[in-house]
Design the sequence.
């Protein structure tokens, strides 16, 4: 494999991993197992190095308690009852015509985008098609496909994957996820989700500069 | 944070990968399949998502109110856009009311509960965490299994507000298979007294009014044009009869309702005097010889079962003699001449409908007022006859049943405190919580409610809330709901219900044209979030507890029912119903005069009871042998009514009016009722003043309540298009009554009594009788989201997952009059005496 | 020059409410052209409100909200109600109101909302009726289509609000969700369009479809056999007493069948510059 292609493949694989993390974090409250992994030095040190503090309590609390706290926080932030942040594109994207609201026009657009790219929604997935975690998972899967194609030498097809990611990023994700993240940063009571929101926002910014930059306007 | 660059991005990727190792990642995937990547040659082509809209029109059924109109849902790309009436429905003729039109709001209102939630703080502290359905069902199953294994399944109580047709059938099926009969309803706050009054007479209940064929309509205490349990089918036929056929419509009401306004004449009447005016009408009709003899042979009006028709006429005449129009005028405020005129026209009309509802029956002895209505209909031969007050006809579905548990029992907390009600055939639901608090008749250990809001809809609702909040009373509470409301805030587990637009049902509500309509409800859209239909929860729960049900899902239950129900099956069964939504027998004739059917009495075990003239099958009655049956007699043999066959009338065996529910009776319309007499209640319809009204001080007012055209009692305030039109409920007060208190239109007022206190404003109007106030009972929500209570904050994404929320312009949300209502029961029926409360009203 | 086609409307279905098949709503299938009768001239759509039959149920108000996704705070149709008299001789009646789809005075041939529109008269357009004949008309941000409907082209709207002020009935509002096409800093004007998207597909308007008492009757005045034509003729409705604000000279095409003479009693006019009269409220 030539160096440039290997470099692209590594990047794709890295992006797959980061999107995988974001999908997991925003899909549901973390399980105890995930909390244990997040508390491991490898993860916290990486975040510390990026000035993303999870707070002292995060390090000290036993995983059972932390999982419980994060579960309450996740519910308060994203589920309700009462005032919460509904983490869906149809809610956070600026839409003309009053077509927002749950299962709005943007929901349909996301669903069609993802389905046109070849995926279907899992039968037992009970969320809405434009949930933030679905966007991350979609990117994760496309990045994985891209990495595999690059490793197999199918550069053109890998380019297609990357272009679709760029298009999804530009037409969907950047139009609303940063706003959602700002709202999370504002509303979160524990440092964890604020940190994750900051992270997500930065990842999207980074993505825009890298793969976003490689995508021609016409795509 | 530090900006991302290639170096720390790669580090982050490594850390992410490590964190997600060993399956600690997202709980399940959202997406399946793989990317559909074009070939190398084609991969240069632009990627463009498909566009084209996918449109569907799906027949289903409404549920905004109990009328349950057949509807068509218009769905675009999986989003419900519009609901219309189903033009093929013989019940609704394609019409739908404001509430039905706003059904879309039920699915997409911003504060909808979409995931199972578990309480983490104290009850009422509003702290919740999301849990999975598996966790929720495992927790619930463990509690229920424990009770069942201990032989005390009755300590699990289930209570519902509206469960009908297959929604009720699946629930009762599960509860029977589990073993609890502690199942509460809500009918005593609805109209139970009406049904009890009817059951004491014609055995069954649910009267329909044959407006299509009637020549005259008299309405008491029913706002048919705005709200009714069979609203759209009846209201449109009534206005059509009036406009197109010039049918006179007289409406007796304390308030100028839309119905009264669009009647030929509004006849103002004092609260609680409907029955008296009906008896005065009977008085006029009997004295002036305007009655029709036809129905008297089916009427029992004295102790004597065998009295001649002439004797019966004489007896009715004498029973109503005291209720002269002048006496009625004195008490009811309706001019005697007006009573005479309407009575004469009513009796002379070829056919006439006598309509009653909550205004008539939600009183002390309300059930007896309904009996007076039946008397008026009977003496003019307007019972179950074309154009009259007829027995409702609905669809009779067959459905699968699961085996009943060996231990199947009940706590005795559904029928009120001992001695409270003589014939609570529809239960005393408003006393369930007071009885739970009292505790002397047992307390459930698990209480589960659904489509029900006890801390809002009952009398002294704040009192109910306090009991629900107390963890020492019922230790485990489960609520299935779509909205966070006054009761679900005290649940331990909240389960997200589907809306009616996301579920399966077969339906059976009464037709207005006396031909049964079979219809179904099917999901218009996939349930939002993790909302799940109760009918899908039961099989899951049964499995976890350790028994099986006869169906695997609500859809399966509906499918099986369609294939089991003869007419529907013949038409094409489930597939036909999915396509058309409705079916009726094209050869069916309107059903009138069921009582006139003659019956073959030659069956094995059928004997004639000498005292009553009832043919009954002693073998079905539980009697030991024929000799015992004959010597004990029909009336005294427990279970005899199960063997009822026919009523002998002048040598002909008629089906007549078979007994039902708790009333042991012959086949006559029991206007003289032994059942009532033996409990010290009026044996013949009479006038009983309401004690609280007789005792009230001169400066006190009577409190009445009502529904408007755009709301139900408790399940529509979160619908934005409805609350936009009606979100505040100032108290209606007559200008004279207001002036006596120095109250002007729009003034702030205080309404108080021994039960509670509310602050509201006055709507001073000529459209209400003096001496009372009227407050609609749909508003004054503590919770129900941003549109209903203003509670959730209208910020992006929060309470405002609907961009329209920022256009919400009203900040008033009304007051709730139930705060002022005592949980008093009608001693006959156990119905809540909703309209008997007395209040003081003063300028605030 | 843009050409549009007059709808191939199966009039019977529209006028009778179809008693069934055709009356199925917003996204219903259009009546196939082969079934449509060729009409000699363009339809002239109109509505008759039978005030004897309006029971104030508000199904029309909400059906309109749902059909047209009308945002909160404004309406395309409302029911006004009024209580008058002294107890016990008290009366209450209802008055559904909406855009009158006025024909305009003799001179202008268009109503004041159209003359007020700075984008009118705009492009010349042609309208093809079922017989194949073409009718010319002038387009605008607010314009009169040859079938009599007063419509808004939001793409052309500049959001100036002159039409809102010019309408003596006050049935227009700004749509907070749609920007004016020609000036995206403003919101577009909005009002009842007689459910043109339904009518053009042979389906009656949403408010008519759900009206319990058949108090709303929709149809073609150019068809002498239509129910609206017959009602207008029989009850002499094209006269000052049976339309709102006859004195404004707008020539409204919503007629009130009102033998009891309640229209003028119930009607609450707009106050200049305000739209409070056009918010549906139950007291």
Sequence:
């Amino acid at each position: 494999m030539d160096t440039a292609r290997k470099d692209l493949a590594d990047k794709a694989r890295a992006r797959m991993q980061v999107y995988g993390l974001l999908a997991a974090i925003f899909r549901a409250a973390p399980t105890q197992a995930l909390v244990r992994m997040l508390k491991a030095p490898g993860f916290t040190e990486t975040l510390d190095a990026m000035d993303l503090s999870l707070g002292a309590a995060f390090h000290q609390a036993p995983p059972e308690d932390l999982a419980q706290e994060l579960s309450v926080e996740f519910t308060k932030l994203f589920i309700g009852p009462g005032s919460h942040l509904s983490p869906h594109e149809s809610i956070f994207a600026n839409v003309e015509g009053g077509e927002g609201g749950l299962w709005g026009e943007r929901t349909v657009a996301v669903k069609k985008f993802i389905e046109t790219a070849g995926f279907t929604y899992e039968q037992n997935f009970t969320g809405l098609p434009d949930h933030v975690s679905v966007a991350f998972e979609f990117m994760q899967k496309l990045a994985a496909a891209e990495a595999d194609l690059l490793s197999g030498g199918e550069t053109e097809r890998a380019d297609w994957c990357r272009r679709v990611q760029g298009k999804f990023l530009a037409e969907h994700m950047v139009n609303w996820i940063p706003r959602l993240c700002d709202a999370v940063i504002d509303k979160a009571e524990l440092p964890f989700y604020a940190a994750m929101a900051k992270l997500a926002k930065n990842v999207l910014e980074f993505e825009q500069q890298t793969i976003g930059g490689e995508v021609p306007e016409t795509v | 944070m530090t900006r991302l660059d290639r170096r720390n991005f790669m580090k982050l990727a490594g850390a992410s990968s490590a964190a997600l190792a060993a399956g600690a990642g997202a709980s399940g995937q959202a997406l399946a399949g793989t990317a559909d990547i074009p070939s190398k040659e084609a991969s240069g082509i632009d990627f463009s998502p498909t566009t084209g809209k996918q449109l569907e029109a799906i027949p289903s059924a409404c549920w905004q109110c109990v009328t349950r109109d057949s509807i068509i849902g218009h769905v675009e790309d999986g989003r419900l856009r519009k609901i219309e009436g189903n033009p093929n429905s013989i019940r609704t003729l394609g019409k739908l009311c404001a509430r039905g039109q706003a059904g879309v709001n039920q699915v997409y209102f911003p504060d909808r509960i979409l995931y199972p939630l578990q309480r983490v703080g104290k009850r009422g502290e509003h702290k919740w965490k999301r849990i999975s359905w598996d966790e929720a069902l495992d927790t619930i199953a463990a509690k229920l299994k424990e009770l069942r294994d201990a032989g005390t399944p009755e300590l699990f109580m289930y209570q519902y507000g509206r469960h009908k047709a297959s929604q009720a059938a699946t629930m009762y099926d599960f509860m029977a298979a589990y073993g609890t009969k502690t199942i509460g309803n809500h009918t005593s706050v609805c109209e139970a007294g009406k049904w009890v009054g009817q059951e004491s007479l014609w055995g069954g209940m649910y009267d329909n009014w044959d407006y299509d064929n009637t020549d005259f309509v008299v309405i008491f205490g029913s706002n048919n044009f705005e709200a009714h349990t069979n609203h759209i089918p009846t209201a449109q036929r009534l206005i059509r009869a009036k406009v197109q056929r010039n049918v006179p419509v007289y409406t007796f009401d304390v308030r100028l309702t839309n119905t009264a306004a669009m009647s030929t004449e509004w006849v103002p009447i004092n609260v609680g005097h409907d029955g008296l005016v009906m008896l005065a009408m009977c008085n006029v009709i009997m004295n002036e010889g305007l009655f029709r003899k036809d129905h008297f042979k089916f009427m029992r009006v004295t102790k004597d079962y065998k009295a001649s028709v002439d004797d019966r006429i004489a007896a009715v005449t004498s029973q109503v003699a005291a209720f002269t129009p002048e006496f009625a005028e004195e008490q009811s405020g309706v001019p005697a001449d007006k009573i005479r005129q309407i009575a004469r026209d009513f009796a002379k009309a070829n056919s006439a409908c006598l309509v009653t509802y909550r205004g008539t029956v939600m009183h002390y002895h309300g059930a007896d007022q309904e009996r007076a209505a039946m008397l008026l209909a009977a003496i003019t031969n307007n019972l179950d006859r074309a154009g009259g007050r007829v027995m409702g006809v609905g669809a009779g579905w067959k459905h699968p049943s699961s085996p009943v548990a060996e231990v199947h029992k009940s706590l005795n907390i559904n029928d009120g405190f001992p001695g409270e009600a003589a014939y609570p055939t529809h239960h005393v639901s408003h006393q369930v919580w007071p009885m739970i608090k009292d505790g002397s008749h047992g307390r459930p250990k698990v209480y589960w409610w659904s489509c029900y809001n006890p801390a809002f809809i009952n009398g002294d609702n704040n009192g109910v809330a306090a009991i629900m909040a107390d963890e020492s009373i019922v230790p485990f509470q489960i609520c299935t709901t779509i909205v966070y409301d006054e009761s679900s805030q005290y649940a331990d587990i909240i389960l997200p219900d589907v809306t009616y637009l996301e579920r399966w049902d077969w339906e059976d509500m009464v037709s207005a044209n006396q031909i049964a309509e079979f219809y179904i409800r099917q999901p218009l859209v996939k349930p939002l979030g993790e909302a799940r239909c109760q009918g899908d929860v039961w099989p899951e729960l049964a499995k976890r507890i350790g028994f099986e049900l006869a169906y695997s899902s609500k859809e399966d239950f509906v499918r099986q029912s369609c294939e089991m129900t003869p007419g529907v099956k013949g038409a094409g069964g489930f597939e036909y119903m999915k396509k058309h939504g409705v079916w009726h027998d094209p050869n069916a004739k309107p059903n009138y005069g069921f009582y006139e059917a003659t019956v073959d009495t030659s069956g094995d075990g059928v004997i004639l009871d000498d005292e009553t003239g009832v043919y009954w099958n002693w073998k079905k009655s539980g009697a030991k042998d024929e000799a015992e049956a004959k010597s004990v007699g029909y009336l005294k043999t427990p279970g005899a009514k199960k063997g009822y066959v026919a009523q002998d009338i002048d040598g002909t065996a008629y089906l007549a009016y078979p007994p039902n529910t708790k009333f042991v009776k012959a086949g006559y319309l029991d206007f003289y009722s032994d059942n009532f007499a033996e409990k010290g209640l009026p044996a013949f319809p009479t006038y009983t003043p309401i004690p609280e009204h007789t005792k009230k001080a001169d400066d006190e007012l009577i409190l009445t309540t009502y529904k408007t055209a755009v709301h139900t009692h408790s399940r529509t305030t979160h619908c934005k298009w409805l609350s936009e039109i009606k979100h505040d409920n100032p108290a209606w007060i007559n200008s004279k009554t207001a002036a006596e208190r120095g109250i002007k239109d729009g003034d702030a007022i205080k309404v108080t009594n021994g039960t509670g206190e509310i602050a509201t404003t006055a709507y001073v109007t000529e459209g209400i009788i003096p001496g009372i106030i009227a407050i609609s009972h749909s508003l004054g929500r503590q919770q129900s989201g941003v549109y209903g209570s203003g509670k959730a904050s209208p910020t992006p994404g929060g309470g405002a997952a609907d961009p329209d929320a920022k256009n919400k312009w009203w900040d008033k949300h009304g007051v709730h009059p139930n705060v002022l209502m005592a949980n008093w029961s009608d001693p006959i029926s156990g119905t809540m005496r909703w309209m008997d409360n007395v209040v003081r009203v003063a300028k605030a | 020059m843009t050409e549009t086609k007059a709808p191939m409307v199966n009039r019977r279905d529209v006028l009778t409410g179809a008693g069934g098949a055709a009356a199925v709503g917003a996204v219903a299938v259009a009546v196939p052209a082969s079934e449509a009768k060729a009409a000699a001239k363009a339809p002239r759509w109109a509505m008759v409100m039978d005030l004897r039959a309006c029971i104030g149920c508000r199904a029309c108000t909400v059906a309109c909200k749902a059909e047209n996704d009308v945002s909160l705070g404004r309406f395309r149709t409302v029911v006004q109600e009024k209580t008058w008299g002294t107890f016990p001789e008290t009366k209450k009646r209802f008055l559904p109101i909406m855009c009158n789809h006025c024909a305009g005075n003799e001179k202008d041939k268009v109503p004041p909302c159209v003359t007020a529109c700075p984008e009118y008269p705009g492009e010349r357009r042609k309208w093809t009726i079922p017989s194949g004949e073409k009718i010319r008309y002038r387009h605008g941000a607010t314009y009169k289509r040859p079938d009599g409907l007063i419509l808004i082209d939001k793409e052309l709207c500049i959001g100036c609000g002159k039409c809102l002020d010019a309408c003596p009935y006050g049935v227009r509002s700004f749509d907070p969700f749609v920007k004016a096409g020609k000036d995206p800093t403003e919101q577009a004007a909005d009002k009842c369009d007689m459910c043109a998207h339904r009518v053009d597909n042979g389906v009656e308007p949403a408010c008519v479809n759900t009206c319990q008492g058949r108090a709303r009757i929709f149809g073609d005045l150019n068809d002498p056999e239509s129910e609206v034509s017959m009602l207008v003729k029989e009850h002499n409705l094209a006269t000052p007493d049976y339309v709102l604000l006859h004195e404004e000279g707008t020539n409204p095409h919503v007629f009130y069948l009102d033998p009891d003479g309640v229209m003028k009693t119930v009607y609450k006019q707009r106050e200049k510059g305000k739209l409070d009269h056009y918010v549906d409220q139950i007291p």
Remarks:
- DSSP finds 27 helices and 32 strands in chain B.
- Chain B touches chain C through 64 residues (CB under 8 Å).
